[in-house]
Write a structure and sequence with these properties.
Blueprint: H1 25-35, E1 44-48, H2 54-61, E2 66-70
Parallel strand pairs: 1-2
């Protein structure tokens, strides 16, 4: 029987941008996206609390590929 080596996992740098409505989160993320290196690949996950995805639409309009999580944070629903 051949033993397999365990899979290797690599740390992925992650930033959480949190704050109250109107605190400037979307503006800050848009500015960070403008400044990122061309060779970097970023993902933006947007949790939307309202019926209309305003932040997701703003990111999409800026050319960012967006994945929205409607209904807000899944961890907060417990």
């Amino acid at each position: 029987m051949t033993r397999r080596s365990p899979p290797r996992f690599h740390a992925i740098p992650t930033n959480l941008i949190m704050g109250f409505p109107g605190a400037g989160k979307t503006t800050a993320i848009l500015e960070l996206l403008k400044r990122k290196d061309d060779n970097e690949r970023w993902a933006v996950l947007v949790t939307e609390f309202g019926a209309v995805g305003i932040d997701g639409a703003i990111f999409f309009a800026s050319g960012t590929i967006v994945k929205e999580v409607p209904g807000g944070c899944r961890l907060c629903e417990r």
